[in-house]
Amino acid sequence: MGIKRNLAIHRNRGAVSLTLGFLFAAALVLIPALALAQDQAAPNQKARESEGFIAAVSRWFEEQTANVNSSFRDARKKVEGFSSAAGDAAKTTVEGARDAAGAVARIPTARAISGHEKCRLAPNGAPDCVSAANTICKAKGFDSGKSVDMTTSEVCPAKVYLSGRSTGPECTTETFVSRALCQ
Q1: Same domain, yes or no, for 105 and 31?
Q2: Between the chain's N and C termini, which has fewer beta carbons within 10 Å?
Q3: pTM, two decimal places
């Protein structure tokens, strides 16, 4: 057991010495690079150190002016974008108002008129109430109309009622327009 422990320690020492060797090699490579970087920064610092207080204040004002100009440019771009969006919204609002005004202008010319006009039968046997609605509206001075309310009734000859019946084969169904929307 003592030999095994000795081998483990010896292996660990080998790994540690290998790691230290890599670190030493990396340091040898990085130190000249750092020295070169410091040499390049040093002339800049020496120039700044040699300039006077007035030059430093002047440089600070130039930097601040550049920062303020940049802020104003950004603000102007934002305002231009906002004004463009506001113009588009105003155009949309104007178009919507124009359409609504046109619809409101047409409302006073439309009226619901009551009447009682029989619908003629179409060739397929269904009632045709368009002409009945137009007839009601033209009688009141309008150009055209659409049926709004219709009434249906069963009409029988008098002999059906006299015989005591309320319906029969002689009876027919009639449809009437009772209210029309006229324009």
Answers
A1: yes
A2: N
A3: 0.39
Radius of gyration of the chain (CA): 50
Instruction: Tell me whether residue 6 is in a domain.
Output: no
Select from 109, 137, 157 the last residue of a domain: 109
| 53 belongs to a structural domain | yes
Confidence of residue 7 (pLDDT cuts 50, 70, 90): very low
Tokens of 100: 């609504």
